[in-house]
UniProtKB/TrEMBL annotation:
UniProt feature coiled coil, ranges: none
Official protein name in the record: 3-hydroxyacyl-CoA dehydrogenase
Organism for this UniProt entry: Trichoderma asperellum (strain ATCC 204424 / CBS 433.97 / NBRC 101777)
Length: 314
């Protein structure tokens, strides 16, 4: 989806979430959905009064975008909403009282599914675009166990899906800047007889990461990208690793490439494969763009009264 420029050429737009916690008077409802040009100019606020919005993705076929609102961590008041690309016709996809702290979100456009992580809920979910058939596909612990809920090694945060490889990938970030972050993958098709707590197809493909957050994948080149919020020299960074035909890291690339560093609490990323760019956000209120190899990093926008989280390209 794109907007029609005055000269008749279609121009892409960035939709970026502001979690709202750096506002002059922060509250649980100062989050917003923002529209930017791809050169970093803030165009308008599409949706206001959001409760800690964190992850966003667009479904081009339906012309709608979907985002999570975390609500208060540890309470079952998280939700998922959708709207058209102008922020209108807002609909509730997953209502409050159902999930805990929904984080990053992605869309499997082939199978018409939303995937998202629930941090304090200790789960990875998927559902239809209208919210029906909500299914827990990964569980790392029980919400009824306070110790399991507090253990950041159980927290599922980032998510991406690769229909061509038949897999989805997620991060379990570990303690803040703790060096215990991991990236996992599992099959889109749940093995027969498996449960969300016991799946033989779950594989940890990377470990001992500073604090991995969001994920995106280029299925054509089989390269997995992620942001890391942890400490320097390997945290606050954009990273990638080469995957093989099975969707696992190739042996020669068992250590990830750090593409760019010196981000300020890195969160969201979005690949713009058509133009050879990657867009990144951080909680310092910055929006960046770099090449696919991490070169030519440019700070497109900066506002210390914003804390930017998820983003998508439309």
């Amino acid at each position: 989806m794109s907007s029609e420029a005055a000269n008749g050429v279609c121009e892409s737009k960035l939709i970026v979430l502001d979690i709202g916690l750096s506002a002059n008077v922060p509250s649980m409802t100062t989050g917003a959905v923002l529209e930017f040009s791809t050169d970093g100019q803030l165009q308008r606020t599409l949706v206001q009064s959001q409760s800690l919005p964190d992850g966003i993705a667009a479904d081009y076929a339906s012309g709608r975008m979907f985002w999570t609102c975390m609500g208060k961590p540890g309470k079952r008041d998280g939700a998922i909403y959708s709207a058209d690309m102008n922020g209108e016709d807002i609909k509730t996809v997953v209502s409050t009282g159902t999930i805990n702290t929904p984080k990053q979100l992605t869309i499997d456009s082939v199978n018409k599914k939303i995937y998202f992580c629930d941090r304090e809920g200790l789960r990875v979910y998927r559902c239809n675009l209208d919210g029906s058939d909500l299914e827990c596909v990964i569980s790392t612990g029980s919400e009824e166990d306070p110790e399991a809920m507090k253990d950041a090694e159980n927290w599922c945060v980032g998510i991406t899906v690769a229909p061509q490889l038949g897999k989805f990938y997620w991060t379990q970030k570990g303690p803040s800047k703790g060096g215990k972050g991991r990236i996992f993958c599992a099959s889109i098709s749940t093995p027969l007889g498996a449960s969300s707590r016991s799946r033989p197809d779950v594989q940890c493909i990377l470990g001992s990461l500073p604090e991995p957050i969001d994920l995106d994948i280029d299925e054509k080149s089989r390269i997995l990208y992620w942001t890391d919020r942890g400490e320097i020299p390997f945290g606050n960074s954009l990273n990638r690793i080469q995957l093989n035909e099975s969707g696992l890291p190739v042996e020669a690339s068992s250590k990830p490439d750090v593409l760019t560093r010196h981000l300020n609490e890195a969160i969201g990323l979005k690949l713009d494969k058509k133009n050879g760019h990657i867009y990144i956000t951080d909680l310092g209120g910055n929006l960046y763009r770099c090449d696919m190899d991490g070169q030519n990093k440019t700070k497109l926008y900066s506002d210390n009264q914003r804390a930017l989280t998820g983003l998508t390209l439309i």
